[in-house]
């Protein structure tokens, strides 16, 4: 399901969706990298901050009377005092006693520490609040710049690092994050534009392909302005069209040649039989030849229908019916039957091939002449529906056979099909399909068969 | 009547030549376009029967050459192709009629006679069908040699039917030829006229018959069906 769905997604939507994913992923990655970096940076910042504090305190510490006093400049002193015990310091004398401290808090915080460590250099350690509070301190112990044996401890109320990172991330969102939707939109626009421009040749290809039909077989798809990746497709289609046209042309030539090759010997045969003295034998021979000729005509009609869909024009069904009735009237008269046409006062126009429609109607009327009772009339009725009906006064077509009579080489067991090969009605059905219409069979009023050619109304076809 | 028969299929050529000769025509034959050109260069023909599928050239080429020389010899085309395009191409090239193979010899003879009966044709003077004769110059009709008096309109109607013996002549075509612009024509004027003509012909002993193809036109058959 999802597979077939994704097949139908437009290239634009697919590209937009994927580029959007990539951009979002990139944004998340950048945010993670920034917070990672912030962890390290914060630690370093703390160390540097404490060192500076320690140096400042050492600078202002003065040994006096065997003791030590720290006299900070007023601003600095103020800063310690206003820090709310976030920043502490204490100076430890060689005996390990606190000689000076920033506040009482500092005294209690550092009181429990063991100062037995070597006084040299710097050590950084974590200091849990001796008061049992939740806050912990990050502390640095240094002896630098102090009289021998003295050490200074500075501590910084350990802020939770998440706070920094949250701050950093919200800063990131406000100052950098807004670029994400902008870049996203720009990327989508670019993708859409690229796809539009690179797909334009395909639209042109499609438009051209729509024009290719049986009457425009020599048209080919343009290949010059097409992107290299797509170019193989129109080239292959053009090659396929070339092959089709060749086959088409061969079939057309075959039909024309077959007509000549088949009909000339029949003409010879007809002429030979005409030379014989008239007898019941020669009459039967003539009938056989006529049947053979009809079969050849129908086979040629079938192959023409298959080789080349006929050229369509505006056709007046009145004219089609009149032409065919005039053509077949002598045949009907010779068989002691009559043809009658009931046309419509106004032209009944359809889209079609008059040649193919004449053939189809001719097949229907020939059948009707063969089946209608001697002395009776075959009536051809043109109606504005648009339709042409052919009614005879024969035995009719049994309901059970009304579908199968339109199949090729069907021959009724009960109906004597006037020597036909069973192709006539198949040709009629095929022709009507080609015209977007249909052929139906029913009972004629007063008995007999009624075949009707139905056409789509002109304009709706 | 001198005819040129151009057909490449020798069996058909022989048979048709024999039948036409029996029907009273003098028939020259040609099996190729080249032979046909030679024949046309040396003789004058009253009509030509032309097969389109010649071995060396398309039969239509000969027809076009003929017409470009302003030669109006009636030409009947024999063709195995019944596609509408072929028909149109033949008639556009100046053919007067065409017959689809295979054809009945009698049909070919009737069509040839019809071509020769045309106003400029060699048989332009007397139209015949069965036992009736129509002198188009003297405007007289005889049945078995007995004069049959007809009105001018009946005469025109009969003439037009005789010119296309055995084929349906559309009602519209007849009306145009029989009635002038100023004539009052009711939808059944022609029918009434034809009814009168039919009665006179039957009374005069005509061996043929005029058939009605209702909704299309009329057909004169040489022999009663």
Write the layout of secondary structure elements.
The complex is a heterodimer of chains A (461) and B (225).
Chain A: H1 2-8, H2 11-60, E1 61-64, E2 67-70, H3 74-82, E3 87-92, E4 98-101, H4 104-111, E5 122-128, E6 136-142, E7 151-157, H5 161-177, H6 179-211, H7 228-275, H8 280-307, E8 313-316, H9 317-334, E9 338-342, E10 349-352, H10 354-371, E11 377-383, E12 387-391, H11 424-434, E13 438-443, E14 449-454
Helix pairs in contact in A: 2-5, 2-6, 7-8, 8-11, 9-10, 10-11
Chain B: E1 2-6, H1 10-22, E2 26-30, H2 33-42, E3 47-51, H3 59-68, E4 75-79, H4 84-92, E5 97-100, H5 105-116, E6 126-129, E7 132-135, E8 140-143, E9 146-147, H6 152-163, E10 168-170, H7 171-178, H8 189-204, E11 209-213, E12 217-221
Parallel strand pairs in B: 1-2, 1-3, 3-4, 4-5
Antiparallel strand pairs in B: 6-7, 7-8, 8-9, 10-12, 11-12
Helix pairs in contact in B: 6-8
Describe this protein's structure.
The complex is a heterodimer of chains A (461) and B (225). Chain A is rod-shaped. Chain A has a five-stranded antiparallel beta sheet, sandwiched between helices. In chain A, strands 9-11-12-14-13 form a five-stranded mixed beta sheet, with helices on one face. Chain A has three domains: 32-164, 2-Layer Sandwich (Beta-Lactamase), CATH 3.30.450; 212-309, Orthogonal Bundle (Helix Hairpins), CATH 1.10.287; 311-454, Histidine kinase-like ATPase, C-terminal domain (Heat Shock Protein 90, 2-Layer Sandwich). Helix content of chain A is 54%, strand content 16%. Chain A has 461 residues and is an alpha+beta fold. The longest helix of chain A has 50 residues, at 11-60. Chain A has helices at 2-8, 11-60, 74-82, 104-111, 161-177, 179-211, 228-275, 280-307, 317-334, 354-371, 424-434, and strands spanning 61-64, 67-70, 87-92, 98-101, 122-128, 136-142, 151-157, 313-316, 338-342, 349-352, 377-383, 387-391, 438-443, 449-454. Chain A starts with a helix and ends in a 7-residue tail after the last strand. Chain B is elongated and about 55 Å long. A five-stranded parallel beta sheet of chain B has the order 2-1-3-4-5, sandwiched between helices. A four-stranded antiparallel beta sheet of chain B has the order 6-7-8-9, covered by helices on one side. Chain B has a three-stranded antiparallel beta sheet with strand order 10-12-11. Chain B has 225 residues and is an alpha/beta fold. Chain B has helices at residues 10-22, 33-42, 59-68, 84-92, 105-116, 152-163, 171-178, 189-204, and strands spanning 2-6, 26-30, 47-51, 75-79, 97-100, 126-129, 132-135, 140-143, 146-147, 168-170, 209-213, 217-221. Chain A binds chain B through residues 256, 259-260, 262-264, 266-272, 274-275, 289, 293, 297, 300, 304, 322, 325-327, 329-330, 333-334, 336, 338-343, 353-355, 377, 380, and chain B through 9, 11-12, 15-16, 18-19, 53, 78, 80-84, 100-106, 166-168, 170, 211-217, 219, 221, 225.
């Amino acid at each position: 399901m999802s597979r077939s769905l994704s097949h139908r997604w437009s290239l634009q939507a697919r590209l937009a969706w994927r580029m959007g994913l990539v951009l979002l992923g990139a944004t998340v990655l950048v945010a993670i990298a920034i917070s990672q970096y912030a962890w390290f940076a914060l630690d370093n910042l703390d160390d540097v901050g404490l060192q500076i504090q320690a140096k400042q305190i050492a600078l202002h510490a003065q040994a006096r009377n065997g003791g030590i006093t720290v006299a900070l400049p007023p601003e600095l002193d103020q800063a310690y005092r206003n820090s709310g015990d976030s920043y502490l310091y204490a100076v430890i004398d060689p005996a390990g006693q606190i000689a000076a401290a920033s506040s009482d808090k500092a005294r209690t915080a550092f009181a429990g520490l063991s100062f037995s460590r070597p006084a040299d250099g710097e050590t950084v350690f974590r200091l849990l609040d001796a008061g049992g509070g939740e806050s912990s301190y990050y502390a640095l112990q240094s002896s630098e710049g102090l009289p021998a044996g003295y050490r200074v401890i500075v501590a910084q109320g350990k802020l939770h690092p998440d706070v920094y990172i949250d701050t950093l991330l919200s800063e990131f969102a406000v100052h950098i994050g807004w670029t994400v939707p902008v870049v996203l939109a720009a990327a989508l626009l670019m993708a859409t534009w690229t796809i539009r421009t690179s797909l334009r040749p395909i639209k042109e290809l499609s438009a051209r392909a729509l024009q290719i039909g049986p009457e425009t077989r020599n048209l080919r798809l343009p290949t010059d302005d097409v992107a290299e990746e797509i170019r193989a497709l129109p080239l292959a289609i053009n090659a396929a069209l070339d092959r089709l046209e060749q086959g088409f042309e061969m079939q057309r030539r075959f039909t024309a040649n077959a007509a000549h090759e088949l009909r000339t010997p029949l003409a010879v045969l007809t002429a030979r039989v005409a030379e014989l003295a008239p007898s019941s034998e020669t009459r039967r021979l003539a009938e056989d030849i006529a049947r053979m000729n009809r079969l050849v005509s129908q086979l040629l009609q079938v192959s023409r229908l298959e080789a080349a869909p006929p050229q369509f024009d505006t056709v007046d069904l009145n004219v089609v019916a009149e032409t065919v009735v005039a053509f077949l009237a002598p045949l009907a008269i010779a068989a002691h039957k009559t043809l009658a046409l009931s046309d419509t006062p106004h032209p009944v126009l359809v889209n079609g091939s008059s040649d193919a429609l004449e053939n189809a109607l001719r097949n229907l009327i020939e059948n009707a002449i063969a089946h209608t009772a001697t002395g009776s009339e075959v009536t051809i009725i043109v109606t504005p529906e648009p339709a042409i009906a052919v009614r005879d006064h024969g035995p009719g077509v049994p309901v059970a056979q009304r579908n199968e009579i339109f199949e090729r080489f069907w021959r009724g067991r009960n109906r004597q099909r006037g020597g036909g090969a069973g192709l006539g009605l198949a040709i009629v059905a095929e022709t009507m399909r080609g015209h977007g219409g249909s052929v139906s069979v029913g009972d004629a009023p007063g008995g007999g068969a009624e075949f009707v050619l139905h056409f789509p109304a002109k304009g709706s076809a | 009547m001198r005819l040129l028969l151009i057909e490449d299929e020798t069996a058909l050529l022989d048979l048709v030549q024999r039948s036409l000769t029996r029907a009273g025509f003098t028939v020259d034959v040609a099996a190729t376009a080249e032979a046909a050109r030679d024949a046309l260069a040396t003789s004058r023909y009253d009509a030509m029967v032309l097969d389109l599928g010649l071995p060396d050239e398309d039969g239509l080429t000969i027809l076009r050459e003929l017409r470009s020389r302003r030669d109006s010899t009636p030409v009947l085309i024999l063709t195995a192709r019944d596609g509408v395009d072929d028909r149109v191409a033949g008639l556009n090239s100046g053919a007067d009629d065409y017959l689809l193979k295979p054809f009945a010899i009698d049909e070919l003879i009737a069509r040839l006679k019809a071509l020769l009966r045309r106003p400029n044709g060699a048989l332009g003077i007397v139209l015949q069908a069965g036992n009736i004769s129509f002198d188009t110059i003297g405007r007289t009709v005889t049945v078995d040699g007995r004069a049959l008096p007809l009105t001018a309109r009946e005469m025109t109607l009969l003439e037009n039917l005789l010119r296309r013996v055995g084929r349906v002549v559309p009602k519209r075509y007849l009306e145009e030829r029989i009635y002038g612009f100023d004539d009052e024509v009711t939808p059944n004027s022609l029918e009434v006229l034809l009814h009168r003509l039919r009665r006179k012909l039957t009374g005069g002993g005509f061996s043929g018959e005029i058939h009605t193809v209702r909704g299309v036109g009329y057909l004169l058959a040489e022999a009663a069906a």
